[in-house]
Specification:
2 copies of one chain form a homodimer.
Chain A: H1 6-10, H2 20-28, E1 32-35, H3 47-54, H4 70-80, E2 92-95, H5 97-109, E3 115-120, H6 124-132, E4 136-141, H7 153-159, E5 164-170, H8 182-194, E6 198-202, E7 227-232, E8 245-248, H9 252-264, H10 270-280, H11 284-307, E9 321-325, H12 331-340, E10 347-350, E11 352-353, E12 367-371, H13 376-395
Helix pairs in contact in A: 3-10, 4-10, 5-6, 5-9, 11-13
Amino acid sequence: MPNISRRGCEMPSSPIRKLAPLANAAKAQGVKVYHLNIGQPDLPTPQNGLNALKHVTRKTLEYSPSEGYPGLREKLCGYYKPFGIQVSPDEIIVTTGGSEAILLSFMACLDPGDEIIMLEPGYANYISFARAAGIKVRTVTSTIENGFALPPVEAFEEVITPATRAILLCNPSNPTGYVYTTEELLKIKDIVLRHNLFLFSDEVYREFIYNGEPFMSALTLGIDQHVIMIDSVSKRYSECGIRIGMVVTRNKQVHDAVLKFCQARLSPPLLGQIVAEASIEGVEDYLKACQTEYKARRDFLIEGLNRIPGVVSPMPQGAFYTVVSLPVDDAENFCRWLLTDFRLDGETVMMAPAAGFYSNPALGRQQVRIAYVLKIEDLKRCLQILETALKQYAAR
Amino acid sequence: MPNISRRGCEMPSSPIRKLAPLANAAKAQGVKVYHLNIGQPDLPTPQNGLNALKHVTRKTLEYSPSEGYPGLREKLCGYYKPFGIQVSPDEIIVTTGGSEAILLSFMACLDPGDEIIMLEPGYANYISFARAAGIKVRTVTSTIENGFALPPVEAFEEVITPATRAILLCNPSNPTGYVYTTEELLKIKDIVLRHNLFLFSDEVYREFIYNGEPFMSALTLGIDQHVIMIDSVSKRYSECGIRIGMVVTRNKQVHDAVLKFCQARLSPPLLGQIVAEASIEGVEDYLKACQTEYKARRDFLIEGLNRIPGVVSPMPQGAFYTVVSLPVDDAENFCRWLLTDFRLDGETVMMAPAAGFYSNPALGRQQVRIAYVLKIEDLKRCLQILETALKQYAAR
């Protein structure tokens, strides 16, 4: 029997999904599992998007253009305009979720052995995609004590080598919820220019900012030839399952190279594009309501978490995640135990161990990522479960 | 401005899609373009699949499991059974089209620098995915003179090196339409066992075999631990746009490694899975009708092609493609000219230059791949256009 590849062996399991078999086993026993582990919003998809499905009149569900339908790309240009992002449809490539946008733009811009700088804790799957593409990840560590703010410029300079080709920023940040300030973004801009780097800017959470500040896209920094913006409709319109994301760049070489990878995989999902296009317009009130709801959840959750003895969470200003420090030795073991052993009246919670969001897992050993994608009533119950579980875990 | 990657530069443009801008320009001038270049069937998607869309009652279009919904995987097991393929749902991973199935199983099984043997002419995107994964492709050449039959075993042995890790077979073959015989498959089996290789078997065209022989899957060869079967509903149910494929393997190590890559990209398309699941059952008559239709088209097209002076096409026994030799110096130039210069009463045809289906493009310089995915009336018109164009091209 032939052996699988080294990269197949070394590919990390998703910290967000690796405990899924344990959750499924618990559910099979009749246990109710609250999913705080995954950014799967419970809010409804915009009605226009759902209606579009009922009105599909095609008789053949055919391939779409590799770069996505022009209609969707045109609507996206209109969507970006209020954010000061001026792009044309030719500068947008529709991908199979933000995930594919990351993988293919990594491949188009970076070669095996090239280095990319990411902040940690960072979205775990960036590391997976970097590994798939053979790219070396160097990390700059943000800390819970500083509320996961941008580390000083010196920390970036320290990890830059001749092989460094790019910086990746997730703004607002998954998993920390941190929103970078204009000052911080200008520091990143300086580093990018000084070292002639690409800047991958994952901006999928731009609609979810709670501090009243306007969102600042990397595409407004005046370094267009360096910027590859990653986007997705998944979170914005609560339609993660349709798998529609996008690569947005004004760098034509990057655009054309990404497009070649996109041609190989033929086309992004047709039905997802239909839903996405219908979701874009007439959703001002919808988006405002989503933001209000997430803000209320955030306020409720973070206050509740910090009231549990030994639990510490900064106040995230964006996205719908927070990285939380727990009074346990090993948060992954605790998360497993919650699924395998602990029940409060037949219920438990699932969280994502944060170690997988760090290149040095030790840094996140006592932390979890929590997604506040459940309604307040459920979050209230989750807090009860967590508090009881922590007591019982300490006493076991 | 930073440079893009070497792999981004070297990534080939799809021979199937690279001339699309010329076709679009022709259409913008009001020219009717017959698409013989792409395997985009014009047949309708099964009504059950289309109906399923109208009956989606979910309010949130959420992520699905990384491995795909259990219901779809169960139905697929039932679909495979009549082909003698005995698999359980745990041996199937749903992917974003057959394309993703290929890329992710390459990554899970092979490391950069590893070698894979493919037949040429072969599906061009295999080479693209191999390049994306850093895998070296070695080819064994089948010839139009032999109707693209399997070359002798010696030809495989000649290209096997210590770095050889796998053979890829597409059966029935895209682009040649060749269907491998039991004898040929047993030869492949021997080579696979002798050299302890993986066998990637792309079987997406199994429903389209016209010689009355039953289809023989690589999963019936008795070398299960070596086989990764690539599948897709795209062609079978004329639903290429929903992007649903699958990796089917009984090798648990391979399965688990592919799943880790799948977790990183979160999930396959939700809506596509709904359509695919609804398409599987109650389509015996549908599939029979499709086969009859494609067979009639094949008979009509191949006879017509061979009647044009200087044009040669073997009689393909499966799929819906044929590789055709044309009386031109350079088929790509001819294909371009058809789109840019030639019109017959305001109409022209688009074909895929076959050079991109060979690792040595010179071998396919005079050939094109034609997909017979248009109705006979249109194919008739395409033959007229092609014949007239060839005359005019020779005389220009």
